[in-house]
Specification:
Layout: H1 2-5, H2 31-48, H3 50-55, H4 57-67, H5 74-82, H6 84-88, H7 91-113, E1 121-123, E2 134-142, E3 148-158, E4 161-169, E5 172-173, H8 174-189, H9 191-208
Antiparallel strand pairs: 1-2, 2-3, 3-4, 4-5
């Protein structure tokens, strides 16, 4: 269940200074409106040619890049996923990991997004204080069997507007989940090997498309 839903984290892109009440207003829509806007843009594009998106995963990836990526703090997400290993990584390794991690997620979960419809997503009332510079946008995703799954997006204020950096599905943070998985693999094989694996997966997915 987690693997199938993890792509929805990209909708918040639909991910380090936080805004506060004394800082200038954050440009763009508030977090709740931003998630709604991104979801609607994705749905409009998918509905216009859903069969083509289902047949071509790379077409979905391009759509996510165009609509979602600008609203996703991929650098912050990658830093949190790497945890202690971020501090010892070279600048080149950081850059390569950020790119490879993002594209590996697209290749793994992009096909599930092609089946996403407006009936799958329910926005819940917003609770929080935006002046803190952080917010959680709460939603429910309805699966094919009718199960309602809570999917919450962690957002932060940036000079470019609100951005998402984590998604929590049924109480499971994808940042914490990947940090555990990658941490064990890095400890065993090293960061360079993990980056090469992710880049290979991303390249294989691109070639297949």
């Amino acid at each position: 269940m987690f693997r199938r839903l993890a792509i929805l984290s990209l909708l918040s892109l639909a991910l380090p200074l936080a805004a506060n009440a004394q800082q200038p207003a954050v440009p763009g829509p508030d977090p709740q409106a931003l998630i709604e806007q991104i979801a609607q843009q994705m749905l409009d594009a998918l509905d216009a040619d859903r069969d083509a998106y289902k047949k071509d995963p790379q077409k979905v990836n391009a759509l996510v890049d165009r609509v979602v990526l600008q609203h996703f703090d991929s650098s912050r997400a990658a830093q949190l996923v790497l945890g202690k290993h971020w501090r010892t990584a070279t600048e080149e390794q950081k850059r390569r990991f950020i790119d490879a991690f993002y594209h590996s997620l697209l290749n793994k979960y992009g096909t599930a997004l092609a089946s996403f419809t407006s009936s799958n997503l329910t926005m819940l009332p917003f609770r929080g204080d935006l002046s803190t510079g952080s917010a959680t946008v709460r939603t429910e995703v309805t699966t094919s069997d009718g199960t309602r799954v809570p999917v919450n997006y962690s957002m932060r204020a940036t000079p470019e507007g609100w951005k998402a950096w984590d998604v929590t599905i049924e109480g499971i943070s994808y940042i914490k989940n990947f940090r555990t998985d990658f941490g064990a693999e890095i400890d065993q094989k090293g960061l360079a090997a993990v980056i090469e694996r992710l880049e290979s997966e991303a390249g294989a997915g691109h070639a297949a498309g």
